[in-house]
Design goal:
- The chain is mainly alpha-helical.
- The protein has a single domain, classed as Up-down Bundle (Four Helix Bundle (Hemerythrin (Met), subunit A)).
- The protein contains six helices and two strands, in the order H-H-H-H-E-E-H-H.
- It has a two-stranded antiparallel ribbon with strand order 1-2.
- A hairpin with a 2-residue loop joins strand 1 and strand 2.
- Helix 1 runs antiparallel to helix 4 and helix 3 runs antiparallel to helix 5.
Length: about 170
C-alpha cells in the first residue's frame, strides 16, 4: 500500500462527504425556514467549536497533510467563511489542492520528519506517524463533530451520508 492511498485518497473522500453533509444541512435549514447562520454557528457544547470551525479544521488538517507529506507550501485560507456557499468554496479549494498531488510526490514521505508547533510545543513525527496519529484522527473527529452538530439539529443524516456511497 502506498502512502498516497492511505492519505490523499481518504482525505479527498472525507472532504467530499463533508460537503454532502453540509448540503443536507443547508437543505434542512431552507425547508425548516431556519436562518443559515443559526445552523453554521451551532455547536454540541459551549466549549466546542461551531460547525463553521469544524469544517475549517478538516480543511486545514487535510491541506496541511497533503502539503507536508508532498513537500509543498501549505495553502493559506483566511478562515472568513460565513455561509454554506463559502464553506463549499473552501472545501472545493482543498479538494483541488489535494487532487493535484501525485503519488510519486509522497515517495519516502512515510519516514520523513514532520514537526508541528502546537501551543508553543514542538511535536515531531515521522510522516506515517503524523498521518496515523495526528491527521486522520483529527480529520475524522472534526468531520464526525460536524455530522453530529447537524444530526443534533434534526438534519436527517445517516451512516451512508458520513461514509459516502461506494465509488
Amino acid at each position: 500500500m502506498h502512502l498516497y492511498d492511505v492519505s490523499i485518497t481518504p482525505l479527498l473522500r472525507t472532504l467530499q462527504n463533508l460537503k454532502h453533509i453540509l448540503q443536507q444541512g443547508e437543505l434542512y435549514a431552507e425547508q425548516k425556514k431556519v436562518a443559515p447562520e443559526v445552523v453554521l454557528d451551532s455547536r454540541l457544547a459551549v466549549d466546542m467549536y461551531p460547525l463553521i470551525k469544524q469544517v475549517q479544521l478538516v480543511s486545514d488538517m487535510s491541506k496541511g497533510a497533503g502539503a507536508r507529506l508532498a513537500g509543498l507550501e501549505i495553502p493559506q485560507y483566511a478562515d472568513d467563511e460565513t455561509s454554506f456557499e463559502t464553506l463549499y468554496v473552501r472545501i472545493d479549494k482543498t479538494v483541488d489542492f489535494l487532487a493535484q498531488i501525485k503519488p510519486e510526490q509522497l515517495e519516502g514521505a512515510a519516514s520523513k520528519e514532520v514537526v508541528l508547533t502546537i501551543r508553543k510545543v514542538d511535536l515531531t513525527f515521522t510522516g506515517l506517524d503524523y498521518l496515523e496519529k495526528w491527521v486522520m484522527p483529527n480529520v475524522y473527529f472534526h468531520t464526525t463533530t460536524a455530522y453530529n452538530i447537524l444530526r443534533h439539529l434534526g438534519v436527517p443524516l445517516g451512516k451512508t451520508d458520513y461514509l459516502g456511497q461506494k465509488r
